[in-house]
Amino acid sequence: MAQKNKLQKFAELNTFKNVYQNPFHENPILTDHTGEQIDMKGQWHKHFGNKNPITLELACGGGEYTLAMGKDYPNRNFIGIDIKGNRIWKGARVALAEGQDNVAFLRSRIEFIEHFFEKGEVQEIWITFADPQLKKARKRLTSPIFLDRYRKFLAEDNLMHLKTDSPVLYEYTLEVIEEQKLELLYENSDIYAQPLVYPELRFKTFYEKMHLEDKRTIKYIQYKL
After folding, report:
1. SS3 sequence of 119-182
2. How far is CA 16 from CA 21, 96, 107, 117, 158, in A?
3. Whose CB among 40, 158, 180, 204 lies 3.0–4.6 Å from 154's, allowing a Cys bridge?
4. Domain 2-224 has CATH 3.40.50.150
5. How would you write the pLDDT of the chain (225 residues) with one tens digit per residue?
């Protein structure tokens, strides 16, 4: 039954107008809801029908953060990115049902991300509870190799956000910021120990709720590339 439901979700996902997919996983090629190949690099304003600033949520899962920010900031555009189609299905379905036209989803390996956005097309990136990759630092979404990918499409006046329960990813990211002499704007190893500095931090993903139940502390870093 679970497999049948999963296949049904994938079939529905293929019809969602707010989802673009990389079906091949080995080549940076996207298809739209018609199944046609489409080049979205530099073209996201056409999807949204405006030129409002774009924020990405990497490893978005069910898109809880993407959806919440889309509601709070209707004059911005938000794109959730994840490789798991059954996760993206959840967020994309909600966005369509609730008429959140400023929210879209991209199903792809994040290693391909620079192929889907033009230089200066994105203003902001959120990394929310991504896999800390304890054995492979180069695969961490805040590693130098990923930062170089983001630089290819981030606007000059950009913002990076990391929200995590992992002390390893938190400390590692601070080390990368120091080594690369990046501009650190804010960091906190326990954001709920005092009133939240930024309203966006109140949003909680599925995984954050689990971590809080396990009494883990939630950490946050804001910086610029």
Report:
1. CCCEEEEEEECCCCCCCCHHHCCCCHHHHHHHHCCEEEEEEEEEEECCHHHHHHHHHHHHHCCC
2. 10, 8, 12, 20, 29
3. 158
4. yes
5. 455 587 888 889 999 999 999 987 788 999 999 999 999 999 999 999 999 999 999 999 999 999 999 999 999 999 999 999 989 999 999 999 999 999 999 999 999 999 999 999 999 999 999 999 999 999 999 999 999 999 999 999 999 999 999 999 999 999 999 999 999 999 999 999 999 999 999 998 887 888 888 888 999 999 999
Can you give the pTM of this predicted structure?
0.94
